[in-house]
Design goal:
The chain is an alpha+beta fold. Among the domains are: 132 residues, no CATH class; 73 residues, Sporulation related repeat (Alpha-Beta Plaits, 2-Layer Sandwich). The protein has nine helices and 13 strands. The strands form four sheets. It has a four-stranded antiparallel beta sheet with strand order 11-12-10-13. The chain has a three-stranded antiparallel beta sheet with strand order 1-2-5, with helices on one face. Strands 3-4-9 form a three-stranded antiparallel beta sheet, with no helix packed on it. The longest helix is centred in the middle third of the chain and has 47 residues. 10% of the residues are buried.
């Protein structure tokens, strides 16, 4: 049951959680869902699915269990293997329940069918958001027709007026129009003067920049006569000093990836391991004179064993443990 709880916790952080030799739980993001007919609005969420073809170990679940239970990576893998065996036996006769995630059953073709629970939203960005209903606004045809009709205010305005305009007011000259035209003309003249002055300033700065560039180019092309230089004879003592290699003064623990007779092949593997993120290094030459390349070379035995278990069980690579004294 604890393993199933750990899977549920990891689905909040990872889009894929793989159970070795069993399958992978995947999350798929779903955007906001709006139902116009009913007015229901659902927040974004992540839907869980299961794929039995993705069964290779990615180390996420085993590492999480080892961290939670304070155990080694190898012990966590053995615990997962026992859980998977019991799950497969239980699926033969009954359904397998993952609380908060869903349930599994075997169909007529003896394949796993997953039914998601759907009660838990694994999208952390939508934490605390729930679905709600907003009823749509329905307008009657009569209200729409009334809103589209223009208001007849002519009669009301005539009744509320205290006086009626006479002929003298109509015959007055429109002095306000001429004043507005004059103000517009003044504004245009001011804007033309301002933008014209800005144009002249910009042209002056451009010409100064061109002159500075030309002066710099002339200085760079200029040549100077410094006269002839006298020769100097220098002598160096280039005899190398040989130093003897000192033996190892401590014990090293290495996770060896391979041994090679050719130094080119060994350096090629060393470079490939470093590109993949490992602190790879050469160990001591073996008695046959072969070059040994290690995933890592440690002073701590515990660190070397942790790397050995990870490469062997998680990455499925053939390695062996070397103690250099």
């Amino acid at each position: 049951m604890l393993t199933q709880q750990y899977i549920k916790e990891l689905l909040f952080k990872h889009e894929c959680v793989t159970v070795p030799s069993f399958g992978a739980f995947l999350t798929r993001s779903i955007n906001v869902l709006i139902q116009p007919d009913t007015g229901l609005i659902f927040p974004p969420k992540k839907e869980v699915s299961f794929n039995s073809l993705l069964s290779s170990n990615d180390g996420i679940l085993a590492h999480y269990i080892a961290q939670k239970e304070n155990m080694s990576f190898e012990q966590a893998l053995r615990r997962i293997e026992k859980e998977v065996i019991s799950w497969k036996q239980r699926l033969i006769t009954q359904q397998l329940l993952f609380p908060g995630i869903g349930e599994m059953r075997l169909n007529s073709q003896k394949k796993i069918t997953f039914y998601p629970d759907g009660k838990i939203n694994f999208d952390l960005s939508a934490f605390g958001l729930g679905s709600f209903c907003r009823k749509p606004i329905n307008l009657n045809h009569t209200d729409i027709e009334k809103s589209n009709q223009p208001l007849n205010m002519e009669k009301e305005n005539k009744e509320n007026l205290m006086f009626t305009p006479g002929k003298k007011e109509k015959d007055r000259k429109p002095f306000g129009k001429y004043a507005a035209i004059g103000l517009i003309g003044i504004a245009l003249a001011g804007s033309i003067y301002y933008f014209g002055n800005q144009y002249l300033v910009n042209e002056k700065t451009k010409s100064m920049e061109l002159a500075q560039k030309k002066i710099k180019s002339n200085v760079q092309k200029a040549t100077f006569n410094l006269g002839s230089l006298t020769k100097m004879n220098l002598s160096f003592n280039s005899e190398p000093k040989l130093t003897e290699s000192t033996p190892l003064d401590r014990t090293y623990y290495s996770v060896v990836a391979g041994s090679f007779r050719s130094i080119d092949n060994a350096e090629r593997l060393l470079k490939n391991l470093r590109v993949n993120g490992f602190d790879a290094a050469f160990t001591e030459l073996n008695p046959q004179g072969l070059y040994r390349v290690a995933y890592g070379r440690f002073v701590s035995k515990r660190e070397a064993l942790n790397l050995h278990n990870y490469v062997r069980f998680a990455l499925k690579e053939d390695v062996w443990f070397l103690v250099e004294k």
